[in-house]
Records
---
Amino acid sequence: MKALHTVVALTLFVTVSGIASAEGTKIEKSTLMNNSIINNTANLALGKDSTANAGSISVKNGAYVKDSTLLDAAIINNTANLALGQGSTANVGSIDIK
């Protein structure tokens, strides 16, 4: 059980530290590049409306992208990506624009 707690704690740290987020900003004539390297990771979103992202770029909540280049060169190995629960999402090495 102690090992499970360690894995979950490490996953939460990696998940929170591995996301770049832009909310309510203008992104014009720019390059969004995702060069994340993700190895031996479990990325879990557990419960209703939960979100888990590892090595991802998220642009949302009033932000917009115009005349820009998006490059996703993420390298992902031995990774479990799970979303369990209504409305839950889990992303690894992704670029998400809403």
---
Amino acid sequence: MLAPDTRAGGGAPEMVVYPPSQPVEHVFWGCTGAREVRRVLQRQLPQGVELLPKHVWVLEPPATELHPLVWAAVCLATLTVMLSVSKQLQWLQRDAQLSG
């Protein structure tokens, strides 16, 4: 998977290849924090509507009752929280390893 490398100092970010063992699904869908965020979001959806990755990643409403602009805002907030939780969990793991 290609992603911008924001660690490079100055200039345009370089592209780096992440190994297939770290797909986007793991980072934004399968980690502990993302599962909890998804669980909270799923509870707010109409009965019988299943939340899929594409609904969040491409801002596609999972039900016709959901207004597309409202759903887009929900998705952006969801992805922001998932990223924040993922970073916090990484920091906690790193701190635990350093103290361990």
